[in-house]
Design brief:
The structure holds two protein chains of two kinds. Chain A is mainly β. Chain A is about 0% helix and about 55% strand. In chain B, about 0% of the residues lie in helices and about 55% in strands. Chain B is built from no helices and eleven strands. The model of chain B has no long low-confidence stretch (mean pLDDT about 90). Classes of the chains: A mainly beta, B mainly beta. At the A-B interface, strand 5 and strand 10 of A face strand 4, strand 5, strand 9 and strand 10 of B.
Chain lengths: ~120, ~120
């Protein structure tokens, strides 16, 4: 039972354009969401996060939108740069008791930004 | 910023041997350490969660006698893959969180384990 879903395994965009990466979740107890960027054979690097009390968080070129009613979040990167090419993971945490801090990851989306 | 050092980055071992992977938090106290494994083109799957000084909590389907986790100090956690088999070959990643969560989740750089 996959609680965090990234339905697009890959996405290709042109440099300078907007990249939109999507993520859906099923567990209504999730209250904190994160996006990570990952290169092969490296650990994930934190990009941006959002709490369930917000619907938008912006940090430079990265903006995360959260639609709680739809259990959907998205990461917008604008303008996209070739160096953004990597696998992007959506992750969620929340719930009760000791499981609060566990992160549940999606399968990732490979973003390719073409020069 | 918060840094987690993970070693080794790559290891090749023979079937039946044991391999130890270390994760150290360099500039903060990691009260909670998470251990993940990732298969090619798959998600990061949580294996276990450990709190300093306590026994690790393993996810369903993860053999605790095979994947030994030690979190004896606030800056060091180890994962030992015992009696490794080729199917244990994977990418293992640790993630540390401090008590208040102010530093979020900091990931190590991962360990590529190949069992031959």
């Amino acid at each position: 039972d996959q609680q965090v879903k990234q339905n697009s395994p890959s996405l290709s965009v042109q440099e300078g354009r907007i990249s939109i990466l999507n993520c859906d979740y099923t567990n209504s107890m999730f209250d904190y969401f994160l996006w990570y960027k990952k290169y092969p054979a490296e650990g994930p690097t934190f990009l941006i996060s959002i709490s369930s009390i917000k619907d938008k968080n912006e940090d430079g070129r990265f903006t995360v939108f959260l639609n709680k009613s739809a259990k959907h979040l998205s990461l917008h990167i604008v303008p996209s740069q070739p160096g953004d090419s990597a696998v992007y993971f959506c992750a969620a945490s929340g719930g009760s008791g000791g499981s609060n801090y566990k992160l549940t990851f999606g399968k990732g989306t490979l973003l390719t930004v073409n020069p | 910023g918060a840094v987690v050092s993970q070693h080794p980055s790559r290891v090749i071992c023979k079937s039946g041997t044991s391999v130890k992977i270390e994760c150290r938090s360099l500039d903060f106290q990691a009260t909670t350490m998470f251990w993940y494994r990732q298969f090619p083109k798959q998600s990061l799957m949580l294996m276990a969660t450990s709190n300093e000084g306590s026994k690790a909590t393993y996810e369903q389907g993860v053999e605790k006698d095979k994947f030994l986790i030690n979190h004896a100090s606030l800056t060091l956690s180890t994962l030992t893959v015992t009696s490794a088999h080729p199917e244990d070959s994977s990418f293992y990643i640790c993630s540390a969180r401090d008590r208040g969560g102010s530093r979020g989740y900091t990931f190590g750089s991962g360990t590529r384990l190949t069992v031959v």
